[in-house]
């Protein structure tokens, strides 16, 4: 029984990532759960220099974890095994759609834009051969999609309550051979006994897909707690261009890691030296934290 934080090592963590990590850690520790760290390093933009920097920044703001850090690149054998088993069960089919084709096809009626309409699900052998031939000229193979038998699934989030969202025939393995985020996240969470998943609420809409796959693979459904994002004053997801947002940037303006932790706790309505037992999911603000990162350049005196 444990929680986890699963950063993508594609850059330094910013204050929004650190806030989500602190919440994931505090909710797990408060509930007496273990807490695991997982590097989602399958992303092409991952860079080894960020692994240790991210881990050092997490430790600096007070997050601790149990056991070794899990690197997804060390799990390809396991993902392949489950992929083969799904294929064996007849649950995967090849998709020959290019990015451009996907962008131009309309989603099925009553499905949100961007969801896959099932174009390649019932092709003839000749159509499949033509699809493979087309892709071979582009130096790629087909993607593999999950043949789902629902279009929507309801799940429960501790903050959002009952949430019903799209389950389309989502990608399990991409045309370049890489396993998809939804697939590897479900396998890792399932294999490592993750019983509580805390992450930013922009991922809530992909959770019904993950729950669907989890059930197919026989894993237990964990508790979900999707927490509000940190946004800039224009309401957009916080990003590096918004000003001083990483610990390294903030250090230049006099912020210690301890000050940053205090700022994050204050955004949660908590005392600067709060303990995990003080961090109650239901009592935290439900709206995004609007942060004007440029003002942090004035230094930690803004903490008051
Ligand atoms: N790697 C994802 C991120 O950094 C998190 C995925 C997850 O928690 O399931 O946004
Ligand atoms: Zn297709």
From TrEMBL:
<dbReference type="InterPro" id="IPR000924">
    <property type="entry name" value="Glu/Gln-tRNA-synth"/>
</dbReference>
<protein>
    <submittedName>
        <fullName>Glutamate--tRNA ligase</fullName>
        <ecNumber>6.1.1.17</ecNumber>
    </submittedName>
</protein>
<dbReference type="GO" id="GO:0006424">
    <property type="term" value="P:glutamyl-tRNA aminoacylation"/>
</dbReference>
<dbReference type="InterPro" id="IPR020058">
    <property type="entry name" value="Glu/Gln-tRNA-synth_Ib_cat-dom"/>
</dbReference>
<keyword id="KW-0436">Ligase</keyword>
<keyword id="KW-0067">ATP-binding</keyword>
<dbReference type="GO" id="GO:0005524">
    <property type="term" value="F:ATP binding"/>
</dbReference>
<dbReference type="GO" id="GO:0005829">
    <property type="term" value="C:cytosol"/>
</dbReference>
<dbReference type="InterPro" id="IPR014729">
    <property type="entry name" value="Rossmann-like_a/b/a_fold"/>
</dbReference>
<dbReference type="Pfam" id="PF00749">
    <property type="entry name" value="tRNA-synt_1c"/>
</dbReference>
<dbReference type="GO" id="GO:0004818">
    <property type="term" value="F:glutamate-tRNA ligase activity"/>
</dbReference>
<keyword id="KW-0547">Nucleotide-binding</keyword>
<keyword id="KW-0479">Metal-binding</keyword>
<dbReference type="InterPro" id="IPR049940">
    <property type="entry name" value="GluQ/Sye"/>
</dbReference>
<comment type="similarity">
    <text>Belongs to the class-I aminoacyl-tRNA synthetase family.</text>
</comment>
<keyword id="KW-0648">Protein biosynthesis</keyword>
<dbReference type="InterPro" id="IPR001412">
    <property type="entry name" value="aa-tRNA-synth_I_CS"/>
</dbReference>
<keyword id="KW-0030">Aminoacyl-tRNA synthetase</keyword>
<feature type="domain" description="Glutamyl/glutaminyl-tRNA synthetase class Ib catalytic">
    <location>
        <begin position="4"/>
        <end position="250"/>
    </location>
</feature>
<keyword id="KW-0862">Zinc</keyword>
């Amino acid at each position: 029984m444990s929680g986890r934080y699963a950063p993508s090592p594609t850059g330094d963590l910013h204050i929004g990532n650190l806030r989500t990590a602190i919440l994931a850690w505090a909710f797990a520790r408060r509930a007496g759960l273990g807490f695991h760290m997982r590097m989602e390093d399958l992303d092409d933009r991952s860079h080894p220099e960020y692994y240790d920097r991210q881990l050092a920044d997490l430790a600096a703001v007070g997050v601790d974890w149990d056991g070794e850090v899990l690197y997804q690149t060390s799990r390809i054998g396991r993902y392949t095994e489950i992929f083969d088993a799904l294929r064996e069960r007849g649950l995967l089919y090849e998709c020959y759609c290019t990015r451009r084709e996907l962008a131009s096809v309309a989603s099925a009626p009553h499905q949100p834009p961007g969801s896959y309409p099932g174009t390649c699900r019932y092709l003839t052998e000749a159509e499949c051969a033509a699809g493979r031939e087309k892709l071979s000229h582009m130096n790629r193979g087909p993607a593999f999609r999950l043949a789902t038998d629902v279009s929507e699934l309801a799940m429960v989030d501790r903050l959002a309550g009952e949430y019903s969202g799209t389950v389309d025939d989502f990608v399990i393995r991409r045309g370049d051979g890489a396993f998809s985020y939804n697939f590897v996240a479900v396998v890792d969470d399932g294999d490592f006994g993750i019983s509580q998943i805390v992450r930013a609420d922009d991922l809530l809409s992909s959770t019904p897909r993950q729950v669907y796959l989890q059930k197919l693979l026989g894993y237990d459904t964990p508790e979900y707690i999707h927490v509000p994002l940190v946004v800039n004053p224009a309401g957009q997801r916080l990003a590096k261009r918004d000003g001083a947002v990483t610990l390294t940037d903030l250090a230049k303006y006099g912020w210690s890691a301890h000050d940053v932790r205090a700022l994050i706790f204050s955004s949660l309505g908590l005392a600067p030296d709060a303990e995990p037992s003080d961090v109650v999911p239901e009592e935290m603000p439900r709206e995004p934290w609007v942060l004007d990162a440029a003002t942090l350049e004035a230094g930690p005196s803004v903490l008051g």
